[in-house]
Design brief:
The complex is a heterotrimer of chains A (272), B (287) and C (379).
Chain A: H1 5-33, H2 50-57, H3 59-92, E1 93-94, H4 98-106, H5 113-131, H6 139-163, H7 168-175, H8 180-209, H9 212-217, H10 224-234, H11 239-271
Helix pairs in contact in A: 1-11, 2-11, 3-6, 3-8, 3-10, 6-8, 7-8, 8-11
Chain B: E1 4-5, H1 11-38, E2 42-44, E3 47-49, H2 55-61, H3 64-98, H4 101-116, H5 119-130, H6 135-142, H7 154-178, H8 182-190, H9 195-206, H10 208-224, H11 227-232, H12 240-248, H13 254-280
Antiparallel strand pairs in B: 2-3
Chain C: H1 8-28, H2 31-34, E1 40-47, H3 53-63, E2 65-72, H4 75-83, E3 92-96, H5 100-105, H6 125-128, E4 134-135, E5 138-139, E6 142-154, E7 178-181, H7 184-194, H8 206-218, E8 223-227, H9 229-238, E9 243-248, H10 249-257, E10 262-265, E11 271-280, H11 287-298, H12 300-307, H13 319-328, H14 330-335, H15 346-351, E12 355-357, H16 366-378
Helix pairs in contact in C: 11-12, 12-13
Classes of the chains: A mainly alpha (272), B mainly alpha (287), C alpha/beta (379).
């Protein structure tokens, strides 16, 4: 396809501009996290790490970070499991009510978070009242809510991967004497591994930054985004920028690792 | 796809099919149905009591400010979708057709990073960038252009929406267009189609499904977001999510908040279903 | 054929790296050193700032306790948080005074023994029997601090003289530069005062309520936005907003200390007082610990901490507290006019009848006021 060089150049600049727009707030947040002023304005104040010191010394923030990790890891596992089940059922089987079945897992993203948050809060409170177990305010209520929210993404990712699988692969395995379970274990799951990992990362990521539902549903056990929201609603402090920078650097590292992992697997895949 | 119409699903099939049903019924359908029920409850002495009254509905739906907010929210969410789709398209086009496979992969991974960073923190960064004494106005000042008010306007709200949706839209558009059979495009060019015509008559129809899905996601995200219109738009005007929060601030009025929430849900379902129907309809000439 | 060879070396490397990083992370958390002594944890439900180190660290060290704060934004939020948790979750509850009645009506707070607290050392006789804190002769909440809401303005756009009346909000130069704190109660209260309703500002008959709505609507074209805490700060600091309705020194005080040219005054039509009080959560297992802390906060040392709170300042309510503040931090005492004889002394203002305690509307429901607020925003 004939490629005009000047057009390519313009397109390249455009892409860079898009990335600049997406990353500008993040970069600025990092800059402000080192700014000595409490209320960032232009021109900047002096370089200071006091906000980082404040964040690192605050045990509540560490607790929230720990909670965020627990929640996002648990959510990732549950959501990926649910997503895998549904993706596989969709891939392999045709059955009545398949439409509503798929709708059941795919609908949550169509409902704005703030509504889900409201509904979850009321529902969990009611369940608590019925069962006398304190369901909201505990980490598992956030995990439950997040898994509902992120399962569709897991399902989509795994389903796309299953699309790439040779449909006769499963039948071939059966013909060679494998049971359905053995086939699952030795053929399907290994094949889906990259998708499973991607799904784990993706759902963990979505859960990590989710604040609307967490805020409604969490009580004393806040996650990191809830802490950010609380700080911002009652204070104004570049602490949030320090926290934001930490989260950003951690996720950058994770993404780079995932990319390297994925890239090397692709090479291995071609070689085998 | 090996689809065997089963007579009776065996244990194996059920193991995979059932978990999601139970989980979603209890933790998704349950809350939503409860919320519908809640919209008929009453609040007495600041406690919610079960009832079946229509007063919440009649009160909310007869309020001028509800409908003002409703149409405004639909309008600004539509505007946000149009902007995001248009802004993302050239970038997605470049990434899908002009970039190498690895560049594309890196670009997509980089665009996923914002999902890992706090949306709230990013929103607050915009304060300093967009305020009248902020970065943008300072730079414009050097060139002699007057300070523009960007915060607490519709523009601010849109910037917020772009922050939220642009990465996702770019990713979805790129992936969709990258999956188009390149041979078809080659064929079109060989037949003498100009680049623009190729885009309009070949690429877009072929990526119709993906593009519509991207638009639907963008609309849903913008429609339900409260951070952008509140912090960057100054609640000028309040959108439906802001209204929900406001309603809960007036004496525990969860039932009335539920009314607003249900109206939002119904609207979104209608738009999502229409969109999906359009996306998967067999248009003329599509392969 | 596809062979699922996980590149074990790469994976192994990752695992090792991860373990190393994880171990390092665990060892560097500040927890390990401090946490395993037998500290009592006290759950506190409050506005942001009350559980922060600048207020509680000294007490925590001295008494081997650890406060676990849950911050809320608004009285309704607070009630919702209590409603959705099992009784006894929160040991200490800090609330706005007008919500104490609701807390009590819902059975969320314990009775308190008045003799435990310095009720005879109050700066104003109202404080010892503050409305709503007592029911049937029993005390349910201890007043901790207060703050005044009036005209908040940027000194570059509004002179101190102009600020003596709410009318300055309508100045043509301020078009698009007046901000509202996003809560109907204080703003509508101020509009009510501007209309001349004085002490009856919350008790409006239909005509008065209609007039207040009209007055408020006339302000709409001046409005630049509706903000929460963070937005308010940003607006005033960046100069986007040159005046704010619905707030007071509790915001401008923080900005002033940071060097911004803002200030708050009580105009001639009168101002509104917000009051914060501590209660003990019903069913709390640490009621004694909670009581001890409340007594500390009512002592001179605690009152000074409260006045100096980094999140937002408030004035002392005890005589001993005020004396301690003047001794410990004259600059802050001067800034907040907490000096006997100062014309803007909050207590003097109350005695002169220029301050009205914040309350909920009497003849309309909160819903009515909130509905109007939504209407106002959409206008």
């Amino acid at each position: 396809m004939k490629q005009s060089r000047s057009l390519n150049f313009i397109l390249g600049i455009y892409v860079v501009l898009i990335f600049a727009f997406v990353f500008a707030p993040i970069i600025f947040s990092m800059i402000f996290s080192f700014n000595s002023q409490r209320f960032p304005t232009i021109p900047l104040g002096e370089f200071s790490t006091e906000w980082y010191a404040k964040v690192l010394a605050d045990p509540d923030i560490w607790k929230a970070a720990r909670n965020s990790l627990i929640v996002s890891c648990s959510t990732a596992v549950i959501a990926t499991f649910l997503g895998f089940c549904t993706a596989y059922s969709d891939f392999r089987y045709n059955f009545r009510f398949k439409g509503p079945y798929l709708a059941l897992i795919l609908l949550p993203p169509t409902i704005p978070l703030i509504i889900m948050a409201l509904a979850m809060l009321a529902w969990l409170a009611m369940l608590a009242w019925l069962s006398k177990i304190g369901m909201s305010g505990q980490l598992y209520s956030i995990i439950i809510a997040h898994s509902v929210l992120t399962a569709p993404f897991a399902m989509a990712v795994i389903r796309l991967r299953l699309n790439q699988m040779d449909p006769d692969l499963e039948s071939a395995a059966w013909n060679l004497g494998g049971s359905e379970w053995q086939t699952m274990r030795h053929v399907i799951i290994p094949f889906c591994k990259p998708a499973i990992f991607s799904s784990l990362f993706l759902t963990a990521a979505v859960s990590f930054d989710e604040f609307a539902v967490s805020w409604f549903v969490s009580g004393l056990n806040s996650t990191l985004p809830v802490v950010v929201l609380e700080i911002v609603q009652g204070n104004i402090d570049p602490q949030v920028n320090a926290i934001g920078t930490f989260v950003f650097l951690t996720s950058m590292t994770l993404v780079v690792l995932a990319q390297l992992f994925f890239a090397s697997r692709q090479i291995k895949g071609i070689q085998s | 796809m090996s689809s065997n119409p089963e007579q009776r699903p065996n244990l194996y099939a059920l193991t995979w099919r059932l978990p999601i049903i139970f989980w979603q019924l209890i933790f998704f359908v349950g809350p939503v149905l409860f919320m519908v029920a809640m919209s008929f409850f009453l609040v007495k002495n600041y406690r919610m009591t079960e009832a079946f009254e229509f007063v919440n509905w009649s009160r909310m739906l007869t309020r001028g400010f509800f409908w003002d907010s409703y149409w405004y929210t639909i309008g600004i969410a539509t505007l946000s979708t149009v902007c995001a789709m248009c802004i993302a398209f050239p970038a997605a086009f470049a990434l899908a057709f002009r970039a190498s496979e690895s560049t594309r992969r890196w670009a997509i991974f980089l665009l996923i990073i914002p999902f890992f960073t706090s949306y709230l923190v990013r929103t607050f960064s915009w304060f300093v960038i967009l305020s009248e004494s902020g970065v943008v106005n300072a730079m414009l000042g050097y060139v002699g252009l007057g300070p523009y008010t960007m915060l607490n306007t519709n523009f601010g709200t849109l910037v917020g929406y772009m922050t939220l949706t642009l990465p996702l839209v770019v990713i979805l558009q790129t992936v969709t267009m990258a999956n188009i059979d390149k041979n078809l495009i080659e064929a079109a060019r060989n037949l003498g189609c100009s680049p623009l015509r190729t885009i309009w008559q070949v690429i877009i129809p072929l990526s119709k499904t993906g593009l519509i899905i991207a638009a639907i996601f963008c609309f849903i995200l913008s429609f339900g977001d409260f951070v952008a219109p509140f912090y960057l738009g100054g609640s000028q005007e309040p959108t439906l999510p802001i209204l929900i929060l406001d309603t809960t601030k007036s004496g525990q009025q969860w039932p009335r908040a539920a009314v607003v929430a249900i109206m939002m849900m119904v609207t979104l379902f209608a738009i999502a279903f229409t969109g999906i129907a359009l996306a998967y309809r067999k248009g003329k000439g599509a392969k | 054929m596809y062979r699922p060879t996980v590149t074990s070396s790469l994976f192994g490397l990752n695992r090792r790296q991860l373990l190393k990083a994880g171990g390092a992370a665990v060892l560097t958390t500040p927890f390990v050193s401090r946490a395993w002594a037998a500290t009592t944890e006290i759950n506190m439900l409050a506005w942001y700032g009350h559980g922060e180190p600048d207020v509680v660290a000294e007490y925590e060290e001295a008494n081997n306790v650890k406060f676990v704060p849950k911050y809320y934004a608004g009285g309704d939020n607070m009630l919702a948080l209590i409603a959705q948790s099992p009784p006894g979750t929160y040991d200490l509850i800090l609330s706005d005074a007008e919500f104490v009645q609701q807390l009590n009506a819902a059975g969320y707070i314990e009775e308190m023994n008045a003799a435990d607290y310095p009720l005879d050392d109050m700066l104003h006789e109202d404080f010892s029997q503050f409305p709503g804190h007592w029911a049937d002769g029993k005390m349910y909440s201890m007043i901790l601090r207060g703050g005044h809401l009036g005209v908040s303005y940027n000194k570059n756009s509004v002179t101190e003289e102009e600020a003596q009346s709410y009318a300055c909000f309508w100045k043509p130069e301020l078009e698009g530069k007046v901000g509202h704190f996003d809560w109907h109660l204080p703003t509508l209260g101020m509009m009510s005062l501007y209309d001349g309703n004085g002490a009856g500002l919350w008790d409006l008959n239909d005509d008065q309520w209609a007039k207040v709505q009209e007055t408020t609507m006339s302000l709409r074209k001046q409005v630049g936005g509706f903000f929460d805490y963070g937005g308010t700060f940003n607006g005033l600091k960046n100069g986007e907003m040159q005046a704010m309705c619905g707030i007071g020194d509790w915001i401008t005080g923080v900005l002033e200390k940071d060097g911004a040219p803002v200030a708050s005054v009580i105009p001639k039509e009168g101002g509104i007082q917000f009051t914060e009080s501590y209660s003990i959560g019903k069913g709390s297992e640490k009621a004694d610990e909670a009581k001890k802390f409340i007594q500390y906060m009512m002592s001179p040392a605690g009152q000074v901490k409260s006045a100096q709170m980094a999140a937002y300042p408030g004035f002392c309510v005890t005589k001993a507290g005020r004396a301690a503040l003047v001794e410990a931090d004259m600059a802050e005492a001067k800034r907040s006019h907490q000096i006997d004889g100062d014309s803007q002394d909050p207590i003097t203002l109350i005695k002169e009848g220029r301050i009205h305690y914040r309350d909920i509307p009497q003849q309309q429901t909160l819903e009515d006021w909130n509905d109007f607020w939504s209407e106002y925003k959409s206008a």
